Amino acid sequence: xxxxxxxxxxxxxxxxxxxxxxxxxxxxxxxxxxxxxxxxxxxxxxxxxxxxxxxxxxxxxxxxxxxxxxxxxxxxxxxxxxxxxxxxxxxxxxxxxxxxxxxxxxxxxxxxxxxxxxxxxxxxxxxxxxxxxxxxxxxxxxxxxxxxxxxxxxxxxxxxxxxxxxxxxxxxxxxxxxxxxxxxxxxxxxxxxxxxxxxxxxxxxxxxxxxxxxxxxxxxxxxxxxxxxxxxxxxxxxxxxxxxxxxxxxxxxxxxxxxxxxxxxxxxxxxxxxxxxxxxxxxxxxxxxxxxxxxxxxxxxxxxxxxxxxxxxxxxxxxxxxxxxxxxxxxxxxxxxxxxxxxxxxxxxxxxxxxxxxxxxxxxxxxxxxx
Amino acid sequence: xxxxxxxxxxxxxxxxxxxxxxxxxxxxxxxxxxxxxxxxxxxxxxxxxxxxxxxxxxxxxxxxxxxxxxxxxxxxxxxxxxxxxxxxxxxxxxxxxxxxxxxxxxxxxxxxxxxxxxxxxxxxxxxxxxxxxxxxxxxxxxxxxxxxxxxxxxxxxxxxxxxxxxxxxxxxxxxxxxxxxxxxxxxxxxxxxxxxxxxxxxxxxxxxxxxxxxxxxxxxxxxxxxxxxxxxxxxxxxxxxxxxxxxxxx
Lengths: 371, 250
Known about the structure:
The complex is a heterodimer.
Chain A: H1 4-14, H2 19-22, H3 31-37, E1 59-63, E2 66-67, E3 77-81, H4 89-92, E4 98-104, E5 112-131, E6 136-157, E7 162-171, E8 175-184, E9 189-196, E10 201-210, E11 216-225, E12 230-239, E13 245-254, E14 259-268, E15 276-285, E16 291-300, E17 306-314, H5 318-325, H6 331-344, H7 354-368
Parallel strand pairs in A: 1-5, 4-5, 5-6, 6-7, 6-8, 7-9, 8-10, 9-11, 10-12, 11-13, 12-14, 13-15, 14-16, 15-17
Antiparallel strand pairs in A: 1-2, 3-4
Helix pairs in contact in A: 5-6, 6-7
Chain B: E1 3-14, E2 17-28, E3 32-36, H1 43-51, E4 56-65, E5 68-69, H2 75-81, E6 83-86, E7 93-97, H3 98-112, H4 120-133, H5 138-142, E8 144-145, H6 151-165, E9 169-173, H7 181-195, E10 201-205, H8 209-214, E11 219-224, E12 227-232, H9 234-243
Parallel strand pairs in B: 3-10, 3-11, 6-9, 9-10
Antiparallel strand pairs in B: 1-2, 1-4, 4-5, 7-8, 11-12
């Protein structure tokens, strides 16, 4: 477990990137120094039961980055050191910290739920998921409470393995940073859905090199921001082997004076013939003072590929609003339905699953919290 | 016969351009009225003004719906009061299933009227029955509203909504456009089945006699330059089909 002093030390040593270094609209990370300097336990930890599904399945609870065995049913998940290391400045802060590992050789039929609660201060927590050949699993991770939760996730999927995962950014305040890296085997599938529906700022850095043929990386996300909240999402996918597929479907919904920045870069190496890539970025502005920044980038060196990108930012469609109202739906409910419709487009995993119902719940929860 | 809709000297503008210029119309309960007229005469504007579309400003006149001041109501209140607009170009709403949308609409109207909301089970029964009557594949109910629907499917979906919502007055704006012969027959049957009742009325906006072969109007009106310039029975539509608008637009 990292102490506050350790956090300060590590951060000072790493020197987090500034907007100047990154040359884009990313949020200034120096505010994290304040969060890192705060004590744990400043705020009451939320009740875990409000975040769990009703299923009898593996459930793990971490409070301020510390595993809570008495409140967990870890199933196949092990607690301990994580050998994978990140080169990302934020990811490096988790190197050497205790985290969790999931290594499975057979299909895991029940979804695994992991809940991270924060009571203030900072925690840095690494994890590693390794799925053997032909194995499939489902993972739901929820970040709730307050403070800075800094997570590094490493994924190692064997041939034909499939992992579907949902990350819920549900902290009331503070900052959640997710660094996601890994290796996908031949024809392996990693499907990720993120939903940011509460008050904390966030930053997601996902970077994968698709080095085995037929690997598929699908990433969907809906980031709902209000007041002065900021969400920064950066996805870099490098197609290296032949016949790989990647999709990024991200939706930004910005109200009040919030800012959501989405940057997606897909690089297709000369060796990555038959690559299939698609970037779909959409932003919905609910206020004239809100900002959505988008940067879809394709860098293609192979000549037999199918790659597309699209980005659009707009306001709620007045025609659609009137259509709903003309059927008797009041303006507020009509607006909520359109927001839901916008957000649901980003869901990328299997419908009729725990992931889907949770996603739907979180979307409705955001709508329901409005004034 | 009691009055369903009374429009007096209605004037309305869009983007500061006067479109309706003193329109008068009365529709009694149980009546079907057809409005015909050349392009740009104000037919769709009339439908939008009556249903309360933003951007359409009423500058003078009145419209009373079942005795109430229609123009004082919000669009959703007009729908709850029993007004239904069948859109010429139904809007696509990705991410919301037809069933979810329809149930939200039906229950919103019931709530506004102070009635008990329908449970999911009750609603599915009603929706499935109406879908069957319209030859709509039940799978279409699960699809996002109008997304990927053909022109004919969209119009049938409008009729499905009308059948589920059971309005008092349906304003159907070129519901026959984009329909093949079979779809036209099915849609017409739906209008007759749902709306041909003593306590319900229809205002059909159309360019063609072919819809009126299936849905017999009690009255036909010709709208030109924002005013009704001639009214008659069903035979007027036949005359217009034969001779065109001719001197009426001069």
